[in-house]
Fold Oxidoreductase.
Amino acid sequence: MRLPLVSLCHSVALSLVVKALTIDHTAPGHLAITEVADPEPTPHQALIQVHSFSLNAGEVHHVVPEGEAGTVPGWDAAGVVVRAAADGSGPAAGTPVVTLGADGAWAELRAVDTDLIGTVPEGADLGPVSALPVAAGTALRALHRIGPILGRRVLVTGAGGGVGRFALQLAARGGAHVTAVTSDPAKADALRALGAHEIVTDLAALEHLEPVHGVVELVGGAHMVAAHGALAANGVLVAAGHISGEGEQFPYGALFGNAHRHNRRIATYYLLDDAVGLGADLTWLAALTARGELDPQVALRTDWTQAASAAAELVSRRVPGKAVLDVRGH
């Protein structure tokens, strides 16, 4: 996957036009491929030639339809460094990488803080790797917030979604007994294959569950309330998603401490405010994926010219996994 530095730099120098998917509220799916200015990296940023990027639910539900016209959205992308950071940090030119940023991923070129860049093993398919940053990064770091999980019990709500599927795999890899909560019983076999030891499809069943040491909570609303009720003493619930769009109403007594349920905590989480060490985490996740030990669950892969239709598929929940788009020519 490492490309010759001379040819890379030459190709970028000759590229007078950079194209990107930009927000256009007059276009189908609010997206259009347009010509944009070259990214201008700061000294702590590397310039990346994007090969593939992935779509996330938050992007297609909120960022694109609500975003400012003319901007380039996108959090996750994988590609090759064409210009290393001027301050000497991060990978060298020619290195295959996976990247995270607040925007700019859906383009032929993006500038990325080196703290948010992970290296990718030579020869790895960059398509599945591009699905890692937001979903796998959130899952991994939510599990870190719970603490040691070897031999402990972990509950994952919204287990059939992008973050949930990674959380199941990583929690099982970490030695936890994993319970998956899903509203769709048809997903049970697939979730067991990813590492779930038991499946819960009825929130009322959580009242009778053996108390858990940690929760990766991705739904919000009634799911958060029920999952918090399943926590053991000193347990931690990490609220890393809110796909329900519902508020939480804890019944009287739910937050009381007693001999069996004291010191239970709720921690909120947002990946882009947790950049320290993230590049190393992305490097580790990419290596697992390249070795076939972590499955990004790519259910849709197509050319980036099909972004609007791919986003529509995600919005309608017809994609049972991640959606990856490949940039033309790569």
The two ends are 11 Å apart (CA to CA). The CA atoms of residues 226 and 302 lie 38 Å apart. The chain has nine helices and 15 strands. Confidence is low (pLDDT under 50) at residues 1-15.
